[in-house]
Amino acid sequence: MNSNSLNALILVCTLSPSPKKSSSDLLAQQVGQKFSEHGVQSEILRVVDYNVMPGVLKDMGEGDEWPGIREKILAADILVLATPIWVGHPSSVSQRVLERLDAELSETDSQGRPILFDKVAMVAVVGNEDGAHHVIADLSQGLSDVGFSIAAQGSTYWVGEAMHTTDFQDLEQTPEVTANATDISTRNSAHLAALLKSQPFPSS
Predict the structure, then answer these.
(1) Domain NADPH-dependent FMN reductase-like spans what residues (predicted)?
(2) Per-residue pLDDT tens digits for 52-61
């Protein structure tokens, strides 16, 4: 499936502002590199660098920088949420992204379809404890609820040994299983996005 015209927005949901190093950002960079190999251009944005106000509206008023991020989401074919695991859950930043995306439930296109219906979402997770499957399930469900489609095996993750302090960014080399998951998830996400772009979901 030709995906040369596709683009992805990768939202890094680390709690660390730039330019601090981040394992989530490192995995996001790897996701972006794999997307490029599959003909997809990507942009990486660290959410905590912006003033994304709490709320469930498209625009929470003066000072809210979510509307600019929202424009990028609407212009993208694929949305990736890259998050660390904190106390066994997705970061609070990723939760805020989902809360702001809740506003899109009431938005429809010219055919009356939910505005996010023909877009694909993917999840990337890093952490030093067990819980990646829980985090992926949590975020994937929320993304599906607001209208995104999730490709087969549409996620990638790395978790370190429980109760140890090694970060993903501390590794000398990315484990083969994580690299393979990143390749499969980006390839399948690009394939599904191309399919939906050429044959959108039907209107009601």
Answers:
(1) 14-150
(2) 999 999 999 9
Q: What predicted TM-score, i.e. pTM, was given to this entire model?
A: 0.95
Alpha-carbon Rg for the chain in angstroms? 16
- Chain centre distance of CA 76: 11
- Spell out the residues 6+ positions from residue 73 whose beta carbon is closer than 8 angstroms to its own: 9, 79, 101
Could you give the C-alpha distances from 180 to 28, 86, 155, 184, 196, in angstroms and in order?
Answer: 14, 24, 11, 6, 24
Q: Does domain 6-198 have CATH number 3.40.50.2300?
A: no
pLDDT single digits (tens) 52-98: 999 999 999 999 999 999 999 999 999 999 999 998 999 999 999 99
Length of the chain (residues): 204
What are the extents of the domains in the chain?
6-198
